[in-house]
């Protein structure tokens, strides 16, 4: 529940409304059926209302922006949240002080449209 709340806050800040709504819907379903708690359900529904209000504010903000660069930056930032690229990072020949990474595998989340070559830096 705490992780979901943190994720919702981060998605709201990044204009990732669709992800926030899905997480909140999961909590609504949970408090209606599994862990029946009407007080928590009320809080979640209130927060869901805040998310919809933030989405409406975002659309108004986008319509009021006149600078195409600002619009593009805001749209790109939102796209990076909604459709990121994921890469598998595997350490095959880790030597020296990085020996502890040998054989380790990680998932790396990057901006939308990133390429593996972008990770080299």
Summarize the structure.
This protein is mainly alpha-helical.
What topology does this entry show?
Elements: H1 2-13, H2 17-34, H3 38-64, H4 68-82, E1 85-90, E2 105-110
Antiparallel strand pairs: 1-2
Task: Describe the overall structure.
It is a single chain. This protein is mainly alpha-helical and 121 residues long. The protein has four helices and two strands. It is flat and about 55 Å long.
From the alpha carbons, calculate the radius of gyration and give it in angstroms.
Answer: 20 Å
Q: Terminal Cα separation, in Å?
A: 36 Å
What share of residues are in beta strands?
5-15%
Which structural class matches the secondary elements?
A: mainly alpha
Write down the overall geometry.
flat
Q: What about the largest sheet?
A: 2 strands, antiparallel
**Sequence stretches where pLDDT stays below 50 over 5 or more residues:** none
Question: What features would you highlight for this structure?
Answer:
mainly alpha, two-stranded antiparallel sheet, 121 residues, 60% helix, 4 helices, single chain
């Amino acid at each position: 529940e705490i992780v979901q709340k943190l994720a919702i806050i981060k998605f709201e800040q990044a204009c990732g409304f669709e992800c926030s709504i899905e997480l909140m819907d999961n909590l609504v379903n949970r408090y209606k059926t599994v862990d029946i708690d009407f007080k928590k359900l009320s809080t979640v529904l209130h927060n869901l209302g805040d998310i919809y209000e933030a989405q409406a504010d975002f659309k108004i903000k986008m319509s009021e922006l006149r600078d195409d660069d600002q619009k593009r930056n805001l749209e790109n930032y939102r796209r990076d949240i909604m459709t990121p690229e994921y890469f598998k990072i595997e350490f095959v020949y880790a030597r020296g002080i990085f020996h502890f990474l040998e054989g380790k595998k990680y998932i790396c989340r990057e901006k939308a449209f990133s390429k593996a070559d972008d990770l080299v830096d």
